Amino acid sequence: MTARRATPWIRAALIAGAVVAIDQLSKSAVRSSIVPGEEHGLLPGIELVDARNHGVAFGFLPGHHLAVTIVIGLALLALLAYFYRHAARPLIWLPTGLLIGGALGNILDRLRSGSVTDFVKLPLGWPPFNLADAAITLGVVILLIVVEQPRGKRS
Q: pTM of the full predicted structure?
C-alpha cells in the first residue's frame, strides 16, 4: 500500500483510537464516581447519571444482545468495504474513524459487562447516552455530508 493510499487508513485508525480511549475513560470515571440512580448537574438541563443500556444507541432494541452484535458487525463490515473502495474521497476517514471508534467503545462495554454505560442525560425524556453514541451519531451525519459532496470538490 502506498503512503498516499495508507494515509486515510492511518487517520481513521487514529480517530477510532481516540474515540475509544476517551469513551472508555469517561465511562470508567462515571462508574467509579456516580451511584446508579443518582443525577449530578453538569450544565443547566444536562445531568450526569450512571445508566446501563442493554440495547443499541439510545436504548433501542433492549435485550437482543446477539441480534445487536450481528447488526453492528455487519454495519462495520459494510462501512469498511465502502471505505476501502472510497478511501481517496476527501474527509471519508473522519466519519469512518468516528463510527468505528464509537462502535468499538460500546462493544468493549458489552463484552465486559453485557451492557453499555450511558451517562449524559438531556431534558425532555431523551434517553441517556455516552460519548461512543455521540461519535456514532456525528459520524453518520458527517458520512452523509461527505458521500453527498460532489466528487470534484475538495475540502
A: 0.85
